[in-house]
Amino acid sequence: MALFNTLSIIGPGLIGSSILRKARENNAIANKLIVADNNPNNLKRIEELNLADVVTEDLTEAAKADCVIICVPVGAVENVAQAVLPHMPAGAILSDVASVRGKISLKIQQILPQNISYVPGHPMAGTEHSGPDAGFSKLFENRWCLLVPPPHTDPHAIHKMEEFWALCGAKTNILADEKHDRICAMVSHLPHLLAFTICDSADNLSGELKTAVLDYAASGFMDFTRIAGSDPIMWRDIFIENKDAILDTLDRFILNAETMAQAIREGDGATITNKIEHSRQIRRKLIENKQV
Ligand SMILES: NC(=O)c1ccc[n+]([C@@H]2O[C@H](COP(=O)([O-])OP(=O)(O)OC[C@H]3O[C@@H](n4cnc5c(N)ncnc54)[C@H](O)[C@@H]3O)[C@@H](O)[C@H]2O)c1
Ligand SMILES: O=C(O)C(=O)C[C@]1(C(=O)O)C=C[C@@H](O)C=C1
Asked: EC number(s) for this protein (predicted)?
């Protein structure tokens, strides 16, 4: 028996279509897959890829499932939830995969019917690519999915979403919204902010120097350009929704960078090597934990 009779994915982009691909491979996930999107081209692509049983632009049709996972950009989650919630059957689960919690949960709790559980989960997995063609079924394998249900959520619904993510290949942990956002500000949002700023700084160089920089870019700069290639709407929404945690993390980064600048100014080799040694230890630890 499948975990869900009907699973609905709203927004079959990188994350949504990766879930669909996994559900097509593993029929323990759902008997029937419904997909909705406000972009008809993406729906057409989902049909061509045969990733859904029902494809629709109508969110009320997509609401008729025992689990609805909203996979749209952060800024659109609340509106989509508003459209689907009144049409979901009693006992169903609403979820989303947003990269930041911010005020999303509070807003959704205000409109959540008594007989629907809300169990959002943020897969700590992705790429710089977007859209239905970017997804792949192994995206979540051995990656964390951080579940962030509001307090007092039905434990049975939480358990179902733990099972869902396990069937997708992911490990789960439950976190409070604020902690989730502080962690993600450090491990995901700040790195993207830096990558966008580094590439934009290169772009701001004057003509000849800019051309030379891009011609001779080696792997250090290239590693930053990969994440700088990410979707502007997705990251605009994340930065705005996680304002406080990102600004706090950025302040701490700037203070630390100023210490490094001072050490360079003064030729203080000990401080420089000490900082690099600490960052190398982080890299080693992640390799040991098989996270890279
Ligand atoms: N990209 C990542 O690495 C990553 C990782 C984890 C979580 N997330 C989160 O997952 C969500 C989706 O990200 P993605 O990278 O899959 O995005 P994506 O751009 O690849 O896909 C988003 C999909 O949502 C659709 N959409 C947008 N607004 C809509 C609306 N109002 N109604 C219906 N459909 C709508 C788009 O047409 C598109 O098909 C975001 O909230 C993001 O923060 C992304
Ligand atoms: O690997 C990448 O390209 C990603 O940007 C993935 C990444 C991340 O920062 O690690 C991006 C956003 C998420 O919410 C989760 C994962």
From this structure: 1.3.1.12
